[in-house]
Amino acid sequence: MARRPELSNLVTQLILPPFIVLGPRMTPTIRLCLVFHNHQPIGNFENVFEQAYEDAYLPFLDVFERYSESLSISLHTSGPLMEWLVDRKPAYMERLKALVQRGKIEIVGGAFYEPILTMIPARDRVGQIAGYRHWLQDRLGGDVHGMWIPERVWEQTLTSAIVDAGVKYTVLDDFHFKNAGLGEEQLFGHFLTEDEGRVLCVFPGSEKLRYLIPFREPQETIDYLRDVASRHPGAVVVFGDDGEKFGGWPETKKHVYEDGWLRRFFDLLVQHRDWLATCTLADAYENVAPVGKVYLPDGSYREMTEWALPVEKQNEYEDVLRSMEQDQRWPRVKQFVRGGFWRNFKVKYPETNEMYARMMMVSRRFQDAEQEGASGTEFQLARRELYRAQCNCSYWHGAFGGAYLPHLRNGVYNHLIAADNLLDRALNRPQPYVEASADDYNFDARQEVRLASDQLVCFLAPSAGGQMYELDVRSICHNLLATFARRPESYHRRVLGGREQSGGIASIHDRVIFKQEGLDQRIQYDQQLRKSLTDHFWDMETGVEAVASGQALERGDFAQGAYEAVIRRKTDRIQVLLSRTGNAWGVPLKITKGVTLEAGGANLEIAYLIEGLPPGQMFHFGVEFNFAGMPAGIDDRYFFQGQDGRRLGQLGQRLNLQNVRDIGLADEWLGLQAHLESNRPTNFWAYPIETVSQSEGGYELVHQSVLVQPHWHVTGDKDGRWSVVLQLEIQTRNNEVGAAEPVESVAAR
């Protein structure tokens, strides 16, 4: 690799013309860095990986190889996808390696499992970035000194960890630089930035090119670049965006390959080599001096900052933008307009904060074990499971399903629970066991309770209705409460308006496609998160239809009220006792609920006691449970009842069972059964929780969880008391997950 220009060379560059003549051809007066980012998230379906490979990654390589003598590109492939390619597509990897060794493709590194870097501790940032650099160099050869910033989410303090991990340069959007006060005409090169004395080079990626490529005719890109070259000889222009745009996004496979867009684009790049050269980021870094120094504000790409806003402000933001677009002052004003802050996704979607808080707990546990001298295969595997759980896609939502996709959330929890299991074994923890602890586990300045055994882990939030907000089945690494509530979204305005776009090739940000009919009739919003042990009081005549449609009125203050918590311990049995004095219909009542877990057991005993019931007065009381990760619409996911397991239908059905003792949910694919049984005759409501959400394919209905609510018409005994005991039994048939894979160099720090 060439050395960076010395001072004498830089002086020479300043006094020479922008090009020199070499025979009949002059050196290019502009460099174009094409940076492609290929990614599939942890937890995504096998068929999605395969489809993206067949539609985008493989055909792109097929076309590029034919032009590789004349063109050079930079390629970032995320760790989850790269591991899949190594395992499933070795021939592709050999072709990629050959292009790397010829210097036609530069491999751009990154954080191994594509986390938002601002979301994870600095120790994990360095570990993920450095580990992936070594992994890539071992398999593909060549030096890896650049990196892709996941979702271009940037905070200036990232600089130190990135440099400490061995990275010299990266790419962010020009939007970041404009927010720092730079103008469009200043952004044709790379800049130095710094933190704690560590210096990093940052290239601005062109938003203009992101919308031209590949949606407009290739000639428009050439015309734009020619204009830049005429005004800024010697400029470096960077296109950096998703490789899935080239065949993986809707309608792009035909457009890019069958209609020949990519071939025509590459033809034009070759045709105009006399003034336009494609080069890698490494080439530009080594051979072009930085244009200056800059400190960049916190941010991401423009669309991401909009999605991070609260929905009412997002609607207002969109309205203001539309009203200003025709204003002659808008071109001057727009660089000062920006949306929200990425970290507020954890506020907008509290369920993502639950995943984040759980991830932080595992990361701290791993660090503590490391400081205590833990080592060995299972310890290193636990590190990899932690890193996998940091994959960003389920922690936010925008044009893609992200947080709304249950399989992505399930994937995060799967790896977090696997990491916990592996750490138990690495630390030689005696089993069976049961334990309880209280701490601020979700960073809300209030204490939560963790009740755990070698079989189950549950988290309870006394300050939020005494709800159970996580229930981990350790044998299959599955969180039964990885739920998601129904809430307003900015794009619901389009769904309710029924406007569907047809024809043409649109950016993913502009598409309006309905994947099912009648979505406007399915939009519904929840008053609270969909968790378990949520205590409701209803009108006496309230039925399942009113509750399921959200029309039923809450008549008590227990569902979201604060409970007091006490932990009772025995050697092999622990009970968390939660109590609240509140009211229903204005009548003072006290509810006490006890959650008991035994060592070695896979069931929770849940006992309720209501006190203060007036003589002769009846109350309608229900306890809400939710079960996530058990999909609807498939015959091997079903309700059942009784000792004989009599089937009651698929999990997407609505049930209204009266005067029975039990109900169960089964998922044969997971090998999981959850069985809820009462010690007294009980009525059960059950129905699916479904969201109307946005994905790259359009607007769609997504099954999030199954709600099961036992409910009773309650009257007090002579002392004004009423009680019930529920048994929630979990059965699995699969072996423990995450214990026997080979250790890779991701362990590098």
Tell me what the structure shows:
With 749 residues, the chain is an alpha+beta fold. Among the domains are: 34-300, 7-stranded beta/alpha barrel (Alpha-Beta Barrel), CATH 3.20.110.20; 531-622 and 632-690 and 705-732, Distorted Sandwich (Beta-galactosidase, Chain A, domain 5). Helix content is 30%, strand content 29%. 45% of the residues are buried.
In short:
This protein is an alpha+beta fold and 749 residues long. Among the domains are: 34-300, 7-stranded beta/alpha barrel (Alpha-Beta Barrel); 531-622 and 632-690 and 705-732, Beta-galactosidase, Chain A, domain 5 (Distorted Sandwich).
Q: What is the structural class?
A: alpha+beta
Largest sheet: 12 strands, antiparallel
Task: Please give the share of residues in helix.
Answer: 25-40%
CATH architecture designation of the domain at 34-300: Alpha-Beta Barrel
Average pLDDT reading: 92
Radius of gyration: 29 Å
The shape, in one word, is elongated
Unreliable parts: 1-26, 735-749
Quantity of strands, as a count? 29
Strand content: 25-35%
How many H/I helical runs? 21
Instruction: Output the CATH class name of the domain at 34-300.
Output: Alpha Beta
Q: Any descriptors?
A:
749 residues, alpha+beta, 7-stranded beta/alpha barrel, Beta-galactosidase, Chain A, domain 5, 12-stranded antiparallel beta sheet, 10-stranded mixed beta sheet, 21 helices, disordered N terminus, disordered C terminus
Task: Lay out the secondary structure.
Layout: H1 7-15, E1 21-22, E2 25-26, E3 30-38, H2 46-65, E4 73-77, H3 79-88, H4 90-101, E5 105-110, H5 122-140, E6 146-148, H6 158-164, E7 169-173, H7 174-179, E8 191-195, E9 198-205, H8 207-212, H9 218-231, E10 235-242, H10 252-258, H11 261-271, E11 276-278, H12 281-287, E12 292-293, H13 302-307, H14 311-324, H15 330-333, H16 345-348, H17 350-371, H18 377-389, H19 406-426, E13 434-439, E14 448-453, E15 456-461, E16 467-473, E17 478-479, H20 492-497, E18 534-538, H21 544-549, E19 564-570, E20 573-584, E21 587-598, E22 603-611, E23 619-628, E24 637-641, E25 646-650, E26 655-667, E27 672-695, E28 698-714, E29 721-732
Parallel strand pairs: 3-4, 3-10, 3-11, 4-5, 5-6, 6-7, 7-9, 8-12
Antiparallel strand pairs: 1-2, 8-9, 13-14, 14-15, 15-16, 16-17, 18-23, 19-20, 20-21, 21-22, 22-29, 23-28, 24-25, 24-26, 26-27, 27-28, 27-29
